[in-house]
Design goal:
17 helices, Growth Hormone, Chain: A, mainly alpha, about 400 residues, disordered C terminus
Length: about 400
């Protein structure tokens, strides 16, 4: 029988260490990100630089992910995660140099560097999960990992905005540097192997590894459908780049209010994995239906968000949207982990990560462009319509998932 989340954390020490490392590093990320977006809005008097920073945070990941997956399957994943944490700390430290509009470009370099590191860390951590917990606990482990992102987004976004208002953005950047160092120390204590990597194992060319991944996906259309699941909600995340503009022009809230909108996103991201686990547990044949429902929930909630002017209702709609978004992410990750053998899992999850982040970055660029041509509310409505249309198209394509009564097996 699968264990509860509390039992899993108590009894699986190595999984607990990886989980805690994710908590502290993600919390630090949002301690830095929210003040940085507010700082760029203040320095440049517009949402464009914030949208560019968010796009850099995703498009770099998309560009590197296919090659990152090859590395994840070739090296010691634990050591790779430690190196990623230390490099992220170094890149975040450069944000201390962002002082005025002429130095805003440094934020792009810093977040682009962190994104490049995330391209390796994310697939390494996800690929390691099946090695850290028994198969029957994998769905619970995914729900916890997805919830970690939501917890720390809610906490980090709220406290980051408050801390920036109280003591300034520099302290937020310093805290982010410290959290990456703590995360590296936690991963250092992991004792279980995070994969079946064998030192000195002969490997072919990177191009051959990528061909093997493509061939694996072509042989089973369920894999392709699952890889294309996350872009449905990722295409809607460009609305996040509009939060500072909407906060100023529509809701008339300050930096703290904008931070609360991002925190509402985190609350939804915390609820979604838990709800997804309850709805799917023992009924894996529902993956296709639940993926469609989560995508449409995201799109419809943001369509409503684009039309309201009352801040509490807007925050509630953000929570609802990201319940759908995080449920989509958790269920598709669980299914892919179950479907792929360890020797190729890092590459498959990297491709999954690539499509998700590429869609997210494209959405942020579209949001920034739309914000220059129309008001932020209409831009948000256009993005919501894209998500709804994608969900309907994905449902038609993913009929292969409907033909299986259980989650795909190795």
């Amino acid at each position: 029988m699968p264990r509860s989340a509390g039992q899993l954390l108590r009894q699986e020490a190595d999984f607990r260490r990886v989980y805690l490392s994710q908590l502290v590093s993600l919390g630090g990320d949002w301690f830095a990100m929210i003040p940085l977006l507010a700082l760029l809005q203040e320095l440049t008097s517009g949402p464009l630089w914030g949208a560019l920073v968010l796009a850099a945070d995703t498009l770099v990941i998309a560009a590197l992910s296919p090659y990152a997956g090859v590395i994840v399957d070739r090296v010691d994943r634990r050591r790779l995660m430690i190196l990623c944490d230390l490099l992220s700390a170094a890149f975040i430290a450069t944000l201390f140099l962002v002082r005025d509009e002429s130095t805003a470009w440094i934020a792009l370099i810093a977040l682009g560097g962190v994104a490049g590191v995330k391209a390796f860390y994310g697939p390494a951590a996800n690929a390691a999960l099946p090695n850290l917990v028994p198969k029957q606990d994998l769905l619970t482990a995914n729900a916890l990992s997805g919830g970690a992102w939501g917890i720390m987004l809610a906490v980090g976004a709220s406290l980051g905005a408050l801390l920036a208002s109280a003591v300034g953005t520099s302290w937020c950047f310093a805290l982010d540097v410290a959290t990456f160092c703590i995360s590296a120390a936690l991963v250092q204590r992991v004792r279980k192997p995070c994969g079946d990597h064998q030192r000195g194992q002969a490997r072919g060319r990177v191009r051959d590894d990528l061909r093997e991944t493509a061939s694996f996906a072509r042989k089973d259309r369920r894999i392709t459908a699952l890889v294309l699941a996350k872009p449905g909600t990722a295409l809607g995340n460009g609305v996040l780049a509009l939060f500072p503009a909407l906060g100023a022009a529509v809701f008339h809230i300050g930096d703290v209010g904008v931070g609360l909108l991002y925190a509402a996103r985190g609350v939804g991201a915390l609820i979604g994995p838990v709800l997804g686990r309850r709805l799917l547990s023992g009924r894996e044949g529902r993956i296709r239906l639940l993926t469609l429902a989560s995508t449409l929930t995201f799109g419809l909630a943001y369509a409503g968000f684009s039309a309201v002017t009352w801040f509490p209702l807007a925050a509630l709609l953000v929570v609802t949207a990201h319940i759908g978004g995080s449920m989509n992410s958790t269920l598709s990750s669980f299914a892919l982990q179950s479907a792929t053998p360890d020797t190729i899992r890092g590459r498959v999850l990297s491709v999954d990560f690539m499509f998700s982040t590429l869609s997210l970055g494209a959405s942020q660029l579209v949001a920034g462009g739309l914000a220059t041509m129309m008001d932020a509310q209409h831009a948000a409505l256009c993005i919501a319509a894209i998500v709804i249309a994608y969900g309907v198209l994905w449902w038609s394509f993913a009929h292969s998932l409907h033909r299986t009564n259980s989650c795909p097996e190795k």
